[in-house]
Design goal:
alpha+beta, Jelly Rolls, Arc Repressor Mutant, subunit A, four-stranded antiparallel β-sheet, 11 helices, kinase activity, cNMP-bd_CS, kinase, cAMP-binding domain of CRP or a regulatory subunit of cAMP-dependent protein kinases
């Protein structure tokens, strides 16, 4: 059956039950999709375009709204029309057609998931940019999502879903309101993650865990002591050696603490001592340790989140 539309008439509406298939015979339809609270335009469909085949074959709701921009004429095909055509085909053809449709939808779903993963570095770069401009790692989502769309072509809904997945990793939280915001618990984390992904792209030798078990243990103890007994001096936190040893024995009873356990962190510039570590062969002669407490926390958080980016991020998006 032929159907005619006038300019601004709606042929199908996003979310409505897909019951009919349309073939455009004349005119042009604008493709619109809801992104947040706004309708975004995604181009046009003109003559010979087939509309709603996935909805009709799989009983899926329409994924978009189609609005006429000029006088339009379409051929409307109902499930009854389709079944009548199927009855004239070989018995094996309809199941094959449905199988091909399911396979095509699965491929499209995987393509969308990969697009989100490929957009992750750009997202982290933008998060780092906005977080550094903020006072506490809190900034509005709209400019971020719009910039991501320009850089990577990711839609509003997909970008928001990717941000939700990052929040699921415990790195940030969304703050609802008239202007939705995102707050990163560690302001420097997006920048650290972005730089780590860049390093991984250049070198495939980056381990799954950035810190060794020993280094992670030492920094965890330092952060714990610094929180309660640290002394701040010009942005650096000092802790007494005896407090460090006491906390180490409390958290890791039975594990021997040696001078050598600190070597890698000292050589990498993450931890320092008084007197200078390399000139003090005996651990008992060290009176204090010192470091940038916030940098230590950032490093521990980076070490926690980085191994989760691949596996947990994909799992989080698949569960939606």
């Amino acid at each position: 059956m032929r159907k005619k539309l006038q300019p601004r008439d709606i042929l199908v509406k996003e979310g409505d039950a897909g019951e009919k298939l349309y073939i455009v015979l004349k005119g042009e339809l604008q493709i619109q999709k809801k992104e947040g609270t706004k309708l975004q335009n995604y181009g046009f469909w003109g003559p010979r375009s087939i509309i709603g085949e996935e909805a009709l074959l799989s009983k899926m709701p329409y994924a978009y709204t189609l609005r006429a921009t000029e006088p339009v004429e379409v051929l409307e095909i109902t499930p009854e029309n389709l079944q009548e055509a199927f009855d004239k085909l070989p018995v094996w053809f309809p199941p094959l057609l449905r199988f091909m449709d399911r396979h095509a939808r699965k491929l499209e779903l995987n393509r969308k998931k990969l697009a989100k993963i490929y957009a992750l570095p750009a997202l982290l770069f933008l998060c780092a940019k906005y977080a550094q401009k903020s006072e506490d790692g809190t900034f509005p989502l709209v400019p971020l999502i719009e910039d991501l769309g320009v850089i990577h072509g990711l839609g509003h809904n997909d970008a928001f879903e990717l941000l939700r997945a990052l929040c699921d990793l415990g790195t940030a939280k969304l703050i609802p309101g008239d202007l939705t915001q995102i707050h990163f618990y560690r302001k420097n984390l997006p920048s650290l993650l972005y730089r780590t992904l860049l390093a991984r792209k250049k070198s495939k030798n980056i381990p799954r865990s950035l810190l060794s078990a020993n280094d992670q243990t030492i920094l965890t103890v330092f952060a714990s002591v610094a929180k309660t007994k640290g002394q701040e001096k010009q942005g650096t936190t000092f802790i007494h050696q005896k407090d460090f040893v006491a906390k180490y024995k409390e958290l890791f009873p039975g594990v021997k603490l040696t001078h050598r356990a600190f070597e890698n962190l000292v050589q990498c510039g993450y931890l320092f001592s008084v007197p200078e570590f390399l000139s003090t062969p005996n651990f008992k002669d060290i009176s204090q340790f010192y470091a940038d407490k916030e940098a230590v926390k950032d490093l521990l958080e980076l070490n926690r989140v980085y191994p989760l980016l691949d596996k947990k991020l994909i799992e989080s998006m698949e569960s939606r």
